[in-house]
């Protein structure tokens, strides 16, 4: 197992499972490529998910002259963002408890506020593009229902809420505990013992991100290009050149001043010094047809706390349920797995039976003729960091096996969201862009996210300690 955690994650596989979010694909962006690869660019961004989209947006908006090419090994937004749960959900009270235990009160507060800022940040950009994207992306605020199936879990959540409101009194009343009677009668989860009710966001992630890319191409077509199916095969630095980096592809070489790594679970392929520090993890998703009696709850997002956490949203138009999770305790074979070409059979089996079991057969009803419960299923690759928070900023020499650059011409990273990219990636991408532009006003970025030499030394020390013990490395990554 330990070898799997420190091995090269490679490039994204060429034959991934088919994500329902990406059906149909965005016709304008499918296999989009320049007629000839640009020979020189100010910036090359690797990865076309929400992070690469964010870095593009903020760099183009913040500069009148930067030329940018964004490259992806596969189709645009075909990776983690185009395969996720469709939720913009920061489990605030749970994450405050988690990060307070790891980093202390002040950092926990900073991280929670940062995550909670993401729905408004994303909604603002979508609104700016226009009502058509608001409609097609289905971006919306929803009620977040974190459901517990044991009284012990209810009491844990109750104490977390008390601690959370003491730490962040400005959010008092936003989240509350629903008892068993309310969760059964009002929310129809017949087998639950209670829940935390709060707020979250939901979206069709592929449509939102590809819609933003379309808007960027339209506005900045003279200095912005998307290069689908163009994997970066190598990166080399020649510090004597103005365009110090050579990014090698099968279509040619781009010389550039900056390289930005936005490839999440595959980041350590081109950054081998980060293997074991950034570790891929495969997640399972499904789309399910609701039973005959199931109500339309497109205004809800659910977490189900069983052995691990499962999560769901309902499409407000079709009623289809998007359900993910199903991880075995400790993630088992999912951790260290960089391939989304296969399904996780045990997770898929669990997810296929979860909804009737959680809601109860009275709420679920019967299966509808001609509509199988599991309509579609696929996997996607997440990324866990060894110290449990993203790596954001310029890559120092300690992170590289090639000469490091500088703020004028360097390599940058934003990766390691631990499955919570929708409440981290967009503003992490903005922070990287601001740093690159020399406008580092990202005071809102939690300090623990910043990639510093001191942090890297700590990560390498931790990696050296735990790599000899498979169990300790696993616990450090969970």
UniProtKB/TrEMBL annotation:
Pfam families cross-referenced by the UniProt entry: DAO
The organism's place on the tree of life at top rank: Eukaryota
Domain FAD dependent oxidoreductase: 42-433
Transmembrane segments: none
InterPro entries xrefs: FAD-dep_OxRdtase, FAD/NAD-bd_sf
SUPFAM superfamilies noted in UniProt: FAD/NAD(P)-binding domain
Protein name per the record: FAD dependent oxidoreductase domain-containing protein
Protein's organism: Exophiala bonariae
């Amino acid at each position: 197992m330990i070898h799997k955690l420190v091995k090269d994650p490679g490039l994204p596989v060429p034959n991934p499972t088919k994500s329902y979010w990406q059906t149909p694909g965005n016709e304008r962006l499918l296999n989009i490529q320049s007629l000839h690869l640009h020979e020189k660019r100010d910036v090359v961004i690797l990865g076309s998910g929400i992070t690469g989209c964010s870095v593009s947006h903020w760099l183009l908006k913040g500069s009148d002259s930067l030329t940018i090419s964004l490259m992806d090994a596969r189709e645009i937004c075909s990776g983690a963002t185009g395969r996720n749960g469709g939720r913009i959900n920061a489990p605030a009270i749970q994450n405050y408890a988690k990060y307070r235990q790891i980093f202390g009160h002040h950092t926990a507060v900073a991280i929670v506020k940062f995550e909670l800022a993401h729905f408004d940040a994303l909604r603002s950009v979508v609104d700016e593009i226009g009502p058509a994207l608001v409609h097609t992306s289905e971006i919306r605020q929803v009620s977040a229902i974190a459901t517990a199936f044991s009284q012990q879990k209810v009491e844990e959540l109750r104490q977390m809420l008390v601690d959370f409101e003491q730490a962040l009194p400005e959010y008092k009343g936003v989240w509350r505990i629903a008892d068993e009677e309310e969760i059964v009668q009002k929310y129809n989860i017949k087998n639950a013992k209670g829940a935390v009710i709060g707020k979250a966001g939901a979206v069709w992630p592929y449509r939102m991100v590809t819609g933003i890319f379309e808007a960027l191409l339209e506005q900045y077509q003279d200095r912005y290009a998307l290069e689908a199916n163009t994997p970066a095969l190598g990166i080399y630095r020649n510090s004597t050149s103005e365009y110090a980096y050579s990014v090698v592809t099968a279509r040619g070489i781009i010389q550039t001043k900056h390289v930005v790594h936005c490839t999440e679970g595959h980041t350590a392929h081109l950054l081998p010094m980060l293997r074991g520090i950034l570790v891929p993890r495969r997640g399972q998703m499904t789309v399910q047809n609701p039973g005959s009696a199931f109500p339309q709850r497109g205004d809800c997002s659910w977490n189900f706390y069983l052995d691990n956490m499962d999560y769901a949203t309902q499409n407000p138009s079709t009623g289809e349920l998007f359900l993910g999770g199903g991880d075995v305790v400790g993630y088992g074979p999912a951790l260290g797995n960089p391939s989304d070409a296969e399904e996780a059979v045990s997770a898929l089996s669990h997810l296929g039976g979860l909804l009737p079991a959680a809601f109860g057969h009275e709420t679920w009803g019967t299966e509808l003729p001609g509509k199988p419960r599991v309509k579609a299923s696929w996997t996607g690759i997440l990324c866990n960091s060894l110290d449990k928070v993203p790596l954001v900023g310029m890559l120092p020499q300690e992170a590289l096996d090639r000469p490091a650059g500088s703020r004028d011409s360097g390599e940058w990273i934003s990766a390691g969201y631990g499955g919570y990219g929708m409440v981290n990636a967009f503003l992490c991408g903005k922070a990287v862009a601001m740093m690159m532009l020399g406008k580092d006003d990202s005071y809102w970025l939690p300090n623990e996210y910043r990639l510093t030499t001191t942090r890297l030394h700590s990560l390498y020390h931790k990696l050296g300690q735990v790599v000899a013990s498979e169990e300790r490395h696993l616990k450090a990554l969970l």
